[in-house]
Amino acid sequence: QKEVEQNSGPLSVPEGAIASLNCTYSDRGSQSFFWYRQYSGKSPELIMFIYSNGDKEDGRFTAQLNKASQYVSLLIRDSQPSDSATYLCAVNKGFGNEKLTFGTGTRLTIIP
Amino acid sequence: EPEVTQTPSHQVTQMGQEVILRCVPISNHLYFYWYRQILGQKVEFLVSFYNNEISEKSEIFDDQFSVERPDGSNFTLKIRSTKLEDSAMYFCASREIATNEKLFFGSGTQLSVL
Fold first, then answer.
1. How far is CA A108 from CA A9, A22, B42, in A?
2. Digits of tens for pLDDT over chain A (112 positions)?
3. What distance in Å separates residue B102's CA from the closest CA in chain A?
4. Residue A99: which of B56, B95, B107 has the nearest Cβ?
5. In chain A, fewer beta carbons within 10 Å around the N or the C end?
6. Which of B45, B55, B57 to mutate to test the interface with A (most CBs of A within 10 A)?
7. CA A9/CA B78 separation, integer angstroms
């Protein structure tokens, strides 16, 4: 079983719609969870982090965490063409990010 | 916004040669990292470094790899004898001691081993 699993996509979403990205993780001891955006050929950029069960909102982005189900998701509202990128889910066993374990990423395409 | 700077952006080397990848972390950051990403694959942790010593390393970071902070600004990754499978994008990252969440990544060095 992979440590962090994501659907590789591509996920195509019309402009203005909600994009929903999902991630599951295998280690129940994971404490902190991150979503990174990576444009092709570029470095990862932190979008959101979440530590507690429930929802966390930041502008158009909402991260959702369910530790019982070992599930993390990212919702992007009012999707824009500039949101087209690969979204990486990453987890860590401790608070902070000494060693992040990444998923393979979901490629998101926003269709104008 | 401050940046993590990596040089060179591309490095081509022959198998068996030594390479040194260089990074200048953000000036007030104290935790430093190297990650790598083989083309089409996930980002993988290599090593973390704090207070002039390795704090954690992955199984990838074997005896062929070493890190050093030779002065107050640079952070380097050395691969002593490169292998074909070392070909990847290598990312340096850093974070502030007081801010755990945000890890700043550099733009990466694309290493090609021929």
1. 7, 12, 16
2. 679 999 888 999 999 999 999 999 999 989 889 999 999 999 999 999 999 999 999 999 999 999 999 999 999 999 999 999 999 999 987 765 578 999 999 999 999 9
3. 7
4. B56
5. N
6. B45
7. 35
